[in-house]
Amino acid sequence: MEKMCNCHHHKVFPVLVVLFGLLFLLQALNVVSWQFTMMAWPVLVIAGGVMKFVGKSGMCKCC
After folding, report:
1. Residue 39: what are its φ and ψ, rounded to 5°?
2. Minimal CB count within 10 Å: which of 2, 12, 45, 55?
3. How high is the mean pLDDT in each 10-residue block of the chain (63 residues)?
4. Distance from C-alpha of 62 to C-alpha of 57, rounded to nearest angstrom
5. Cα(31)–Cα(40) distance, rounded to whole angstroms?
6. Mapped to the 3 state alphabet, what secondary structure does the chain carry?
7. What is the reported pLDDT for 28?
8. CA angle (32 as vertex; 36, 39 as ends), nearest 5
9. pTM attached to this predicted model
10. In Å, what is the CA distance from 28 to each residue of 25, 31, 37, 39, 40?
């Protein structure tokens, strides 16, 4: 069995998927407004890109 990598930059995509789902669920439940949702999703994409870029700069053992 292959050992799982614990590198932070490998967790960016799954975390973004969960945050997107949570954001749109909260919008559907009228907890947050549509305007907030339309402002927040690009921020999530930018933050994910920054995390991926910064995390990869240290080059983990698996990459």
Report:
1. -85, -35
2. 2
3. 66 86 94 94 88 67 64
4. 13
5. 14
6. CCCCCCCHHHCHHHHHHHHHHHHHHHHHCCCCCHHHHHHHHHHHHHHHHHHHHHHHCCCCCCC
7. 95
8. 10
9. 0.69
10. 5, 8, 10, 15, 15
* Structure token digits, residue 31: 């907890």
Q: Give 21's Cβ-side CA count (13 Å radius).
A: 6
What's the confidence (pLDDT) of residue 13? Answer: 82
> Rounded to whole angstroms, how far apart are CA atoms 23 and 58?
30
End-to-end CA separation in angstroms for the chain: 18
